[in-house]
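A favour, since you know our C-alpha cells better than I do. Would you make up a two-line entry for one protein for me to read? Write everything out right here, beneath this request.
=====
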Amino acid sequence: MGKVYESITPHLKTFIEKQKLFFVSTAPLSQEGLVNISPKGLDSLRILDEQTVAYLDLTGSGAETIAHLKENQRITFMFCAFDGPPKIVRLYGKGEVFERDTPGFEAMKEHFPDYLSARSIIKVKLNRISDACGYTVPLYEFKEDRDTMKKWVDNKGEAALVEYRKLKNSKSLDGLTAFEG
C-alpha cells in the first residue's frame, strides 16, 4: 500500500500543496520529554525543491517545535487527504530554525505571506518521503481559514508580540531553550 520516495515527485507536490492543514511532530532527546504535534495552516508551507520544504512559524502559545529542533533537528510532517481519494503523506527530515530578524529569515521570507505574527521560518532537508493509504481518515469539507490569529495580532501590535514571545515562547514544556530573551 505505502511507498517510499527518493524525492518529492510532481504528484506528491500537487497533493501537498492542495492541503489546507498539515501536522508537524517533534520530540526532545530525553525519554521523559514530551512528544509534540502541532497543526499548521494559513498557506504557510513551501516546497523549495525535491528534498527541501519550509514553513512560516507563527507566534503561538508554545514553542516546542523550535526548542526540539534546536536540540536535535528531528521533524516529521504529515498531510492527510480530507477530500478526494484517501492518502497520507509523511516527510521526515532535519530542520533548521531561522528566527525573525536574522539573515536566514530575511533571505527566506519572500517565499511566504507577510504575517506580523511570524516568529521564525523552519527549513527542513528531507531524508525520508513516504505515503500511506489513509483509508480511515474522515472526509471533511474546507470552509475557510480562521481569522483569529490576525485579529489577535492586530489587537496586540508588534511591540506586545515581542514581549509575548519573551514571556511565552522562551522555553519548551521540557525546559529546552526555544528563543533567547
User: Anything to note?
Assistant: The chain has five helices and eight strands. Residues 86 and 136 are 8 Å apart (CA to CA). The helical segments are 10-18, 64-72, 103-108, 148-156, 158-168.
